[in-house]
Amino acid sequence: MVAVDTNVIVRLLVNDEPKQVRKAAALFETETIFVSKTALLETEWVLRYCYDLDSEAILRGLRSLAALPNVTLECESDITIAFNWFERGLDFADALHLASSRSARRFVTFDRPLRNAAKRLTSISITEP
């Protein structure tokens, strides 16, 4: 299994640097790939801020990556839930933090919009400190 950095994922998804895209594609075609939650988190940020992609395009790309038969995601169930919450309007980072915290007794944040949105999406106890 080979773990990949954000820049390898981004090359594969945006197809913007031909030489690097070929290398990334070859890697994904020949290896079993491990994708960490942090690499996905950073990929979403890069696609949003550096490439100005909207959430639908980003989600489509991340889901297509996750669906590749040779890709293993860190904590796949957390990521699947985060994708669903992201699709329903929650910021991806917030969705991933919240989904990754499901075993906690409660999730504490000063972010009122996050608390309000999360309360509509999950039964996790979400409060202010």
Tags for this entry?
two-stranded parallel sheet, three-stranded parallel beta sheet, 129 residues, elongated, Rossmann fold, mainly alpha, 2 domains
Structure, described:
This protein folds into 2 domains: 1-74, 5'-nuclease (Rossmann fold, 3-Layer(aba) Sandwich); 76-129, no CATH class. With 129 residues, the chain is mainly α. Strand 4, helix 7 (112-121) and strand 5 (126-127) form a beta-alpha-beta unit. The strands form 2 sheets. A 3-stranded parallel β-sheet has the order 1-2-3. It has a two-stranded parallel sheet with strand order 4-5. Helix 3 packs antiparallel against helix 4. 60% of the residues lie in helices and 9% in strands.
Counted beta strands: 5
- Domain module tally: 2
Under CATH, the topology of the largest domain can be stated as: Rossmann fold
Along the chain, the helix and strand elements come as EHHEHHEHHEHE
Q: Averaging pLDDT over every residue, what do you get?
A: 95
> What's the number of helices?
7
Unreliable stretches, pLDDT < 50, 5 or more residues? none
Task: Give the overall form.
Answer: elongated
CATH first level of the largest domain: Alpha Beta
Class by alpha and beta content: mainly alpha
Helix content: 55-70%
The major sheet is characterized as:
3 strands, parallel
CATH superfamily of the largest domain, called what? 5'-nuclease
End-to-end span in angstroms?
Answer: 41 Å
Radius of gyration, in angstroms, nearest whole number:
16 Å
- Under the CATH scheme, the architecture of the largest domain is 3-Layer(aba) Sandwich
The oligomerization state is single chain
